[in-house]
Amino acid sequence: MAWQVSVPELEDQLLCPICLEVFKEPLMLQCGHSYCKCCLVSLSCHRDAELRCPVCRQAVDGSSSPPNVSLARVIEALRLPRDPEPKVCAHHRNPLSLFCEKDQQLICGLCGLLGSHQHHQVTPVSTVYSRMKEELAALISDLKQEQKKVDELIAKLVNNRTRIVNESDVFSWVIRREFQELHHLVDKEKARCLERIEGHTRGLVASLDMQLEQAQSTQERLAQAEHVLEQFSNESHHEFIQKFHSMTSRLAKLKIETEELVKKWRNGLPKSHSL
Length: 275
Fold this sequence. Notes:
Elements lengths: L6 H6 L13 E3 L5 E3 H9 L5 E2 L6 E2 L8 H10 L19 E3 L4 E3 L1 H5 L8 E3 H108 L4 H32 L7
Antiparallel strand pairs: 1-2, 3-4, 5-6, 5-7
Helix pairs in contact: 5-6
C-alpha cells in the first residue's frame, strides 16, 4: 500500500493545537487528543474548574494523561537528518556533474555532449570546487593583507592624533606660561610708569603751588601799593611833592620785581607734554 501523505503534510499533522509547534513530550488525554506536556500543564494551572479538551470540549483529567509514545517516536524519526537531494539538470534530469567554463554554469554530461554547451570547455565539478576553494583562500589571504595594511594605517593615524594632541597641550601650557610672565612684566612696567607720572605730577603741582603762592603775595603787594598811591594822591601839595620821589622809586622797584617774577613764571610753566 503506497503512502498518500508527503512528509511536509505529515509534519503539519504533528502540530500541538495550543502552541501550533511540533509536539514536545506529547501527552494523550482520555478523549484521544494529544498536547505538549508543557502546554497541558500550563492549561491546567490556568483552569480553576474542571479541565476540558480544547479540541472536543470533553471533560478530562490532566493529571492522569499518559505519554503518547507512538507519536513521540514518529516525531523523533522525522527529526533524523536526511541526505540532501542531489542537484539535477532541469532538461535531462541528470546530476549536475560538470561546469561550463565559458558560460560559468553547472551542467550535466548530456548538456556538454548534446545541448547548448557542446564544444565548450567543461571541467568536473570536483575539480572546479577545489580550484574555486583555492581562489577563495587566495582572496581571503589578499583581504587579510589589505586589512593588515588598514590596521597599520589606523594605528599610525591614532599615534599621530595622540602625538598632536599631546604636543598641542604642551604648546598651550608654554604659551599660557609665557603670557603670564608677559602680563607680570607689563603690570610691573605699568605700575612703574604710573608711579613716575604721579611723582612727576606731584613735583609740578608743588612747584605751581609755590609759584601761585608767590603770585598771590605779589598780587597783595600790588593791591596795597595801589591803595597807598590812591591815599597819597590826596596828600597836600607840600607832602605830595616831598614824598613823590620816594613813592615813585618804591613803585618802580615793585614793578621791576613783578615783571621779573611774571617772566620767570611764564618760562617755568609746565607744558601739556612735559608729563
